Records
---
Amino acid sequence: MIGMAFLAMIAMIFTSCEQNAGSRNRPNNGGFGVNFMSHPSATAVFSIHNETPFSLVAFRDNVSLANLLGGIPVGSQNHGIWRNPALFSEAGGAFTVVFVTYEQFLVNRDNLNVLNNTPFTRIFHVYTTAPRTFTISGMLGGQNDLVVQNQTDFGVELRIGGVSGSTLSFIPAGITTTTISVADVDFSIFPVFVTFNPVNGIVTSIFPQGPFGGTWFELVNFSEASPQVQTLSLCAALVP
């Protein structure tokens, strides 16, 4: 009888340790003020496919607790972000979503403002009653730096593999230089320039044309073992 009790105690300790170890990599709902629960489309402002190897935390426009939208677990699909009425009062408004990793959030939670200078990635969205689904590219988060110089007057979405591919990042108009951490792979980047008319709520997408026809793109090469830095220059001539 004593032996059975001892074995049960050992099993409980092992299970407890296993659960605690897992919780470090799988944030629970509400941990440190971040809600990782997925919301259905009826109450979501947008949804995320998270292809990155990180759990992410989303903010509206800038990184601060007042603008916290919620968390997205690693590997999640169709993860709905709550349409918080305190942050989304009416449909038709455009905004930028800033993402940081959950680890970045934990390390800097007492001074989140510093993360506005080094966000993990961004997306651009117009709040409508039919939430859009974004795919955050798994190319993000590696040891290499892609330095993007946006010399245009437009915001630009960087998409992977084609104009309808996953999102590497969004760079708002007025931000001339952005550094994005990317993985050890070669891939093509298709920039899509966007404008928003607040009067009619219409987003216009501009696809730059290549010199020999087709859509303009840039091939970047990050396939070496050591960290690399490459620059992607987006000049005004790309926007007709």
---
Amino acid sequence: METLDSLIKSARRSISLDMQVGCDDGGGRKLYEVIPDENFNLDNMLEKKDLAGIIRSAIKNLTPREEKVLRLRFGITESATNMGEFPISESELKLLEERANEYA
């Protein structure tokens, strides 16, 4: 009997996430637009946005060279393979990292 119930339940018609819900005049929304995203966390999103603003502000205080070194070092934008075109000594790198830690 359990098997029969399972078969009956699984044979139900499926629905499309693109199905219109709400108004029939085409002004409604799609089903996928009204299903809540359980992974979405507004607080985390706002914290990331605030952090990005803080980082942008701190980067403005750096020279273009320092900015590029930090971006390459931490993978903020450009590929680290470009580091060869931008030579830097170990002591200079250490100094820049110490300066960056002052903002942390």
---
Amino acid sequence: MTSESASDNGLQARAAARLSAMPRGTAAVVLALGAAIAAAALLDALWLKDGALAWRTALFGVAGGALVLWLAVRHLRSPTFGAANTVTLVRGALTIVLLALLGIRAVEWWLVGLATLAAALDGVDGALARRRGEAGEFGARFDMETDALLILVLAALVWQNGKAGVWILLAGLLRYLFVGASVLLPWLGAALPPSRRRQAVCVVQIVSLIAALVPVVTQPASAALALAGLTILIWSFAVDVAYLARQARA
């Protein structure tokens, strides 16, 4: 067998594995979306009386679920969707509910509870992936982008509810500004080594935003908490940019 045919066979095998994972992945997406819509409808009926929260959750959820499945078809190399990715999907569904809450000024304990549950599950998917041998490029990227969206949504909720100024949106936009800058400066798109510092800063940022949303935490304490998390996040990005700059010069 030539190296070219072996490569073709390998590509076909990976494509078949990705496609075989799709039925379970689709089922997981549908279940997560259904649970998110049900949770939104319950919140709406018991507390918000908004009337449109479930529809907004469904709209955002369908778009997000379709994106996840499309990326899984392209990048997932496992024959199953995986328990770890399913947990990340649940985190994504919770984030979608929080996203649907934008435009509704309501700082309540249930809002903090939803955000806390989404944050707490962040440690579960990684542990599951390592224990079950499901760690891979797709899962790591799925986890990272879910974290990025959660931070953006939490930052917007903090601003919306008057817990900090508009500057807190930078916490959620930094990741996307970094990716956008890599289009103009390709050296920013180089791979970064795994970093415990980066993981810890992500946790600190999420926790600081959730703490700022706690109903009993008011200005200026809420703004101070948000600013502390943002400062640490900016420092972490600066460390990574400096590393990539040194690599580019080398």
---
Amino acid sequence: MHFPIKLENRPKFINRYSKILEAIEKMKLDFQPFFSIVADETVVDWPEKRTPKLKNFPYHYNNATYEYLANQIKALRLDNF
């Protein structure tokens, strides 16, 4: 599961995200089953109750983001493993 970077503004973390996704895409071809979950950034936003302290740490999200990710996991039907 990849942390969404929609709220991120630091170039080194945005670049890191891209490099991790690139590596995962290559690696998943060799490992099956392999699941890569990426949040739809249209649902990503700050938490409903955001404190000023969180402004410097953009890896806390609104409920819609967590719900979207949870639904992606449920859709994989991992209970069969």
